[in-house]
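Kindly inspect what follows.
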Amino acid sequence: MRALVVVVGGLTACYSPELRDCTVSCAAAMDCAGGQVCGSDGFCASPEVAGRCAGTDGSVAADARVLPILDASLTGELRLKITGKGTLELVGLGTCDPEQHPDDCTYPVTLGVALTLHASPHSDHTFETWTSVACGGQGATCVTTPILPVTDIAAKFRKIAVDD
């Protein structure tokens, strides 16, 4: 039995495609589970159903649950927002510094490719936290993989308190 690993919104699931017809897209029979063939409509199905998964209007059979496959050539947008005084380095792509760019920084990125960000506070500030889900719970270095057309990442820096 072959299993398909599906990643959507950062969640990973394992799915056995032989459980239902018309649930996995294919380009050749080797993409399908045992007993299934790749139909002319591009879906894995038993031989008696093959080719009838997609309707004439391009819709998918009512019981199908087809998820898009990320294409490495697909690009998205990464938007960086900074609260407080500090910079965000997007390794290999640039540095976002609100003192030089007062608006949020935007970078084109390839969907499905991991990115590394480093949060660096200015001299009188400290990195406090990432305030976005994509980097939540990580330290000053964040590794994330954008899978949505637009990914927002926000970092918060706070001023260091001076003892009197």
